[in-house]
Amino acid sequence: MVTRFLLSAAFAALSISTASAAEPPAGKVSVVFDRPIPNIPGKSMRGVVVEYGPGAASPSHTHPKTAFIYATVLEGSFRIKVKGKPEKIYHVGENFVEEPGSVHLVSANASDTEPARLLAVFVLDSDETSIVTPLKR
Questions:
Q1: What angle do CA 71, 72, 78 make, to 5 degrees?
Q2: What is the pLDDT of residues 30-75, one digit of tens each?
Q3: What was the pLDDT predicted at 27?
């Protein structure tokens, strides 16, 4: 329960809008599961659904250095750029991975008129309390 609270608080912090006219609206993140992996001591799987309204995005961020992330688009399309890779638009059914230590430079709804939703599954150290850290500007 504490982990879910801290995870939710971390994403809520990303979602709080201090947005100016130049910044897109933030998205919504919901924890859908958080479970230790029984045959890998000290590791857990955490799943989150990321929902962006039209034109929404998250600030550039990193994830824990232990986190391997697999994401699949459930609705709409996402514009994604991870440092060292080209920016790409992912559509329903397409997926991407983020290696441990990746820097997520762009995470945005690719549409200004339709919503977008994805499922991100994290494999990370069980004691991680925050799964996202905004980059300092």
A1: 90
A2: 999 999 999 999 999 999 999 999 999 999 999 999 999 999 999 9
A3: 84
| 13: enclosing H helix or E strand | helix 2-15
Instruction: Supply the CATH classification number for the domain 2-134.
Output: 2.60.120.10
DSSP-assigned states of every residue in 48-87: EEEEE-TT-EE--EE--TT-EEEEEEEESEEEEEETTS--
User: Which amino acid belongs to residue 20?
Assistant: S
Total-model pTM: 0.80
| Segments making up each domain of the chain, as ranges | 2-134
How many Cα neighbours within 13 Å face the side chain of 65? 0
In angstroms, rounded to a whole number, what is the distance separating the alpha carbons of residues 137 and 130?
Answer: 19
The phi, psi pair for 97, rounded to 5°, reads -125, 155
